[in-house]
Amino acid sequence: MNATTLSLREGLARRVVRGVGSPRLTLALIALVGLAVIGHARVEGGLAGPLAAAFAMAAANLAAALLTNARLRADLALFVFHLSLLALLALAATGRLTALTGTLELAQGEVFDGHLLTREAGPLHPDRLARLRFVNDGFTIDYAEGWRRGRTTNDVRAFGQDGRAVHHAIGDITPLVLEGYRFYTTSNKGFAIVMRWVPRGGQPPERGTVHLPSYPLNEHRQAQSWRIPGTSREAWVMLDLDAPAIDPSRASTFQLPGAHRLVFVTGGERRELRPGDNISVPEGVLVYEGLTAWMGYKVYYDPTLPWLLACAAVGVLALAAFFWRRFGREGRGA
What we know:
Layout: H1 3-20, H2 23-42, H3 48-68, H4 71-74, H5 76-98, E1 100-107, E2 118-121, E3 133-144, E4 148-159, E5 165-170, E6 176-178, E7 181-199, E8 206-211, E9 223-227, E10 234-241, E11 252-253, E12 260-266, E13 269-273, E14 278-281, E15 284-301, H6 305-333
Antiparallel strand pairs: 1-2, 1-15, 3-4, 3-11, 4-5, 6-7, 7-8, 7-15, 9-10, 10-12, 12-13, 14-15
């Protein structure tokens, strides 16, 4: 390879880098990132891959600009600010590829088994949910007059790999943190029907819960359809309350209703059940054991969050130093 060929290749490489770092491309990429963020928020399941790609292209544009634009490197504070911005873009791309958000519901006494009701995860998410275990030991929610929700305190026990349980009190702001996953309580909660199913033929009985719609948001819609385990039989249940479980006229707490009836419909037959009652169907016997409560949780996982905060802090300090020096000099010059 002669010197002329080498010079041509170096010149071509410089032109490519200048093109990648051009201000016009910067404007286009800012618009692209904005569109990707909106799409990620509005599309069910998210757009983690396209959003990460948009952040990566913006990071490449900024890196090329730092290499080719000497003015961005002339002032140390301004250079540090742009480096922190570059790190933020790279971390944002990494976060979208590895992050997870989801929701789940647990009745009191139920153990989380790794399954989520809703889930949005990046393609490179290191899924470790299956080995996490914690149990909902019950919760208290304070209400002001008019059903204004206050503090939520949820007692949980988290189980380590050695089987030992550790007690935690979590809420809407205070999470349960397990291997980087952060579990928070939500306003989504309600009553759950506890049923025991005894199939015919000597098969072992099963005990489970049917979650009714969130309460008190759906006070007058406390009904749910479900399928009896191991059968094709559909059942419909409705909780009939004699009085609101939470008195809206005064300060109160979330509590299970006292007097109530359970309306149970299957195969065209309607029954009203109280705790301890049972209903027989051709496939077995259902026993209504009573009511309990369920809590809805949201879960987050993003290992880049501490680094994002650190880079943002460095960027703010660097930009403040740049403007302080610049306007400070102008003030002294005047």
